[in-house]
UniProtKB/TrEMBL annotation:
It comes from Nocardioides jishulii. Pfam families: Dyp_perox_C, Dyp_perox_N. Residues 59-203 form the Dyp-type peroxidase N-terminal domain. This is Dyp-type peroxidase. SUPFAM superfamilies: Dimeric alpha+beta barrel. Signal peptide: none annotated. Keywords: Heme, Iron, Metal-binding, Oxidoreductase, Peroxidase, Signal. PROSITE patterns: DYP_PEROXIDASE (PS51404), TAT (PS51318). One of its GO terms (cellular component) is cytosol. GO terms for molecular function: heme binding; metal ion binding; peroxidase activity. InterPro entries: Dimeric_a/b-barrel, Dyp_perox_C, Dyp_perox_N, Dyp_peroxidase, TAT_signal. Transmembrane segments: none annotated. The keyword Metal-binding applies. Belongs to the DyP-type peroxidase family.
Length: 403
């Protein structure tokens, strides 16, 4: 027997269906303008990927357009290395990973690779490496970038150990799961003498529109996610993301949050309720106060005496003007999995910022206090990493920090 559909469920269905008819026409154009793509790929042709250079002042995966597949893996250093605070061992591992990253980026097998044919050129492949908080406590003696440390507990967090923490992270992103998965397996295998796997999380994103043009992409709530990001290559992006001075110059910090999303109860909302909770139009991602996807929201706009952008909407609570001008650079990857026999869906949220304590933490506290999306989202994993500066040909990952 089919269960009856309630009014809210029906309206929610109608709203979603109506949104879907607009997405194809509007969202792609907004996304293309957002990312300043010079020439769209012709309809019917398949976009080709790129082989991205691993060298530069910054690790390239941070500013690169999101890949279709992202795997995040955290490892723990072996206990004997921890007891000794063996910086030289970490440096040896970074030399090994440097050779791996250079080979994989070029589409070659890693040194000693038993299946080099799984490495693929033009795969949009990037590998981003960082160090966890324990390496900045005794007996290690490493100096952390300014503001780096653990994210304090938030009242809405329900963190699970299996998705939290770690001494090392590798964020591997690319255009297909085979190439990305192979890269992850090689990195984890080559780290074996030094570290063991703590957690591995896999997600996907739709980073290009049907014509092959880069666009912002959507999370599983159907929201265009990341519209307010600072654009890579701008002064605002540089100020938001990169450490400027010292051994960490060119590096950044990363917070990984596994955010579970309650899709069944979200789907019960009407379209207007969903849009009011975030403050943006679902079809094209534009602010409810008008304009296009990339236009700033007008937080002062009122209608019949009430704010158009609700006071507890996500866009207001996360806006720089609500947070003393603070910003982050966010990336996401959607995930759906069966955990302990139950279906789970959500977002692997990645936040990059120059100063974790002064940027991510205050913004997260503002959201934790009154973000309406807290009703349908729960952070169940959290990890922090100091992301190493980039390296040039002949150098190795972390050379300025670990030498």
């Amino acid at each position: 027997m089919t269960a009856p559909m309630g009014r809210r469920g029906f309206l929610g269905y109608v709203g979603t269906a109506a949104a879907g008819t607009v997405v194809g026409a509007g969202a792609g154009v907004a996304g293309a303008r957002a990312l300043d793509e010079p020439e769209p790929t012709r309809a019917g042709t398949r976009r080709t990927g790129e082989s991205l250079s691993p060298w530069g002042a910054h690790q390239p995966g941070i500013a690169a357009h999101p890949g279709a597949v992202t795997e995040l893996v955290a490892l723990d250093l072996h206990p004997d290395l921890h007891r000794a605070g063996d910086v030289d061992a970490v440096a040896r591992l970074m030399r090994v990973w440097t050779a791996d990253v250079e080979a994989l980026a070029a589409g070659r097998g890693t040194p000693g690779d038993t299946a080099p044919w799984l490495a693929s050129a033009n795969a949009d492949l990037t590998v981003t490496v960082g160090l966890g908080p324990r390496l900045f406590s005794p007996p290690w003696g490493l100096e952390a970038p300014r503001g780096f440390g653990r994210v304090p507990a938030m009242k809405h967090d329900r963190l699970a150990k299996e998705w939290s923490g770690g001494d090392l992270v590798a964020v591997v992103s690319g255009r297909d799961g085979t190439t990305v998965g192979h890269a992850v397996r090689r990195l984890v295998a080559d780290a074996g003498p030094f570290a063991s796997l703590r957690w591995r999380q896999t997600g996907s994103w739709n980073p290009h529109d049907p014509l092959g043009r880069p666009h912002t992409g959507r999370n599983l709530f159907g929201q265009v996610d990341g519209s307010a990001n600072p654009k890579p290559g701008t002064d605002l992006f540089d100020q938001t993301v990169w450490v400027k001075e010292g051994a960490w110059a060119g590096g950044t910090s990363l917070v990984v949050r596994r955010i579970r999303m309650d899709l069944p109860t979200w789907d019960e909302l009407t379209r207007s309720e969903q849009e009011r909770s975030v403050g943006r139009d679902l079809a094209v991602g534009a602010p409810l106060t008008g304009g296009g996807e990339l236009d700033d929201v007008d937080l002062g706009a009122r209608e019949e005496g009430r704010f158009v952008i609700a006071e507890n909407s996500h866009v207001r609570r996360s806006h720089p003007s609500t947070n003393g001008g603070r910003r982050i650079f966010r990336k996401g990857a959607n995930y759906e999995a069966y955990v302990d026999g139950r279906a789970e869906a959500g977002l692997l949220f990645q936040s990059y910022q120059a100063d974790l304590a002064d940027q991510f933490v205050p913004i997260q506290r503002t959201l934790d206090t009154a973000d309406e999306l807290n009703e349908w989202t729960t952070a169940i994993g959290s990890a922090e990493f100091a992301v190493l500066p980039g390296f040039t040909e002949g150098e190795w990952l972390g050379q300025s920090v670990l030498s």
